[in-house]
């Protein structure tokens, strides 16, 4: 290996990590891929392969310091969620790479901690649902203040896992029984309770460089009417596209309040009477085919190339003129559909992909959906 070679470190090497790895290579970096499965789909694109669970950050650190490369690691990221992002933050600190600190990443991956940090955010249209954290017991008066229906979900989680809608007080009592919590494999200490907000839904995606926020996209979201509110469709342009400046300024305030130095930022909102209610915020690479279809193919912006840039200490490219954007949508199917209908829709689609041949009748997360299609006009 060349002494001057520059490496980009990617935690996780499944199929979804291929766009990030290819983007890093197109920017001239060699790539170190880490995955516990040495046959993971994206490892064939990596220059160096490290066989290790992405949760075992100390073992990864040890292997990287055992002469795996005589070049320099100058950046990287994790395409996975939760614990993988914490591993990435640890390794970034060890190698002095552009990234949120481990302490900050612990906050950003904890929904309740984020809410607490943003309680006094000074932005007139920013709002949050009322929230309670479960601590041994919950007073009935506090629950009544949240109101019914309410949401119960875990502080850490993704893809709509462990999201429940509670309609009345007696349902809460049943939900919190030890037997029920054991059935759904949830630790009561990990739960938060929130007021249910009914309103228009949007997903906002941006990139952060040197504590400055760049808005990339706003898309309307259509979700299933029942918990866990599976994502069914993402539509561009959003009906709130004309609010882009306000939404960007609000995210700039959030970035400064949380002191996020760099990385991707994905947020989910519900809009009621001009107020933006924060539902979730995460420093993750966007899923839902937004980063690898909607943004590049509809908005004509290379998200992954610019993610590589900000995570190697460079500023992201300015956005192209919105007037040159197409219209587009990503549509998900919860259950298997008639083959003839599938063929008919697929002919009109930019892409069509089956995700889960054995999709359950009642999905428990976004991971349970049957298929996805992307459309561009």
Please characterize this protein's 3D structure:
This protein is an alpha+beta fold. The chain folds into three domains: 6-97, Rossmann fold, CATH 3.40.50; 130-195, ATP-grasp fold, A domain (Dna Ligase, domain 1, 2-Layer Sandwich), CATH 3.30.1490; 200-376, 2-Layer Sandwich (D-amino Acid Aminotransferase, Chain A, domain 1). It has helices spanning 18-26, 57-64, 83-94, 102-108, 111-117, 140-146, 169-175, 178-183, 244-258, 290-298, 303-310, 339-348; strands at 6-11, 30-35, 48-51, 72-78, 126-127, 131-133, 150-154, 163-166, 191-195, 200-209, 212-223, 231-236, 262-272, 275-282, 328-333, 351-354, 371-376. The strands form three sheets. A nine-stranded mixed β-sheet has the order 5-14-13-10-11-12-15-17-16, with helices on both faces. Strands 3-2-1-4 form a four-stranded parallel β-sheet, with helices on both faces.
């Amino acid at each position: 290996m060349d002494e001057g070679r520059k490496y980009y470190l990617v935690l996780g090497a499944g199929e979804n990590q291929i766009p990030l790895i290819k983007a890093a290579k197109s920017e001239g970096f060699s790539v170190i891929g880490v995955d516990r499965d040495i046959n993971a789909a994206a490892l064939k694109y990596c220059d160096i392969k490290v066989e290790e669970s992405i949760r075992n950050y100390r073992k990864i650190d040890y292997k990287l310091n055992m002469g795996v490369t005589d070049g320099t690691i100058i950046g990287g990221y994790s395409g996975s969620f939760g614990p993988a992002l914490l591993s990435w933050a640890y390794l970034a600190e060890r190698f002095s790479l552009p990234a949120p600190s481990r302490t900050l990443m612990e906050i950003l991956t904890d929904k309740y901690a984020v809410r607490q940090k943003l309680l006094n955010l000074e932005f007139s249209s920013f709002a949050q649902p009322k929230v309670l954290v479960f601590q041994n017991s919950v007073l009935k008066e506090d629950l009544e203040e949240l109101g019914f229906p309410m949401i119960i979900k875990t502080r850490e989680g993704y893809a709509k896992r462990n999201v429940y809608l509670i309609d009345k007080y007696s349902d809460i009592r049943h939900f919190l029984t030890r037997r029920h919590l054991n059935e759904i494999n949830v630790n009561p200490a990990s739960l938060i309770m929130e007021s249910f907000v009914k309103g228009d839904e949007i997903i906002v995606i941006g990139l952060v460089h040197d504590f400055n926020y760049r808005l990339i996209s706003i898309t309307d979201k259509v979700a299933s009417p029942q918990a866990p509110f599976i994502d069914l469709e993402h539509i561009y342009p959003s009906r709130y596209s004309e609010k882009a400046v306000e939404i960007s300024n609000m995210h700039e305030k959030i970035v400064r309040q949380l002191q996020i130095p760099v990385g991707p930022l994905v947020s989910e909102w519900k809009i009621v009477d001009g107020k933006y209610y924060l539902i979730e915020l995460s420093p993750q690479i966007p899923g839902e085919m937004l980063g690898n279809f909607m943004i590049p193919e509809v908005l004509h912006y290379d998200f992954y190339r610019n993610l590589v840039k900000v995570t190697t200490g460079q500023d992201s490219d300015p956005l192209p003129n919105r007037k040159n954007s197409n219209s587009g949508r990503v549509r998900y199917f919860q259950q298997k559909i008639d083959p003839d209908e599938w063929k008919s829709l697929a002919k009109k689609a930019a892409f069509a992909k089956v995700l889960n041949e054995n999709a359950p009748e009642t999905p428990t997360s976004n991971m349970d959906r049957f298929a996805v299609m992307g459309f561009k006009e």
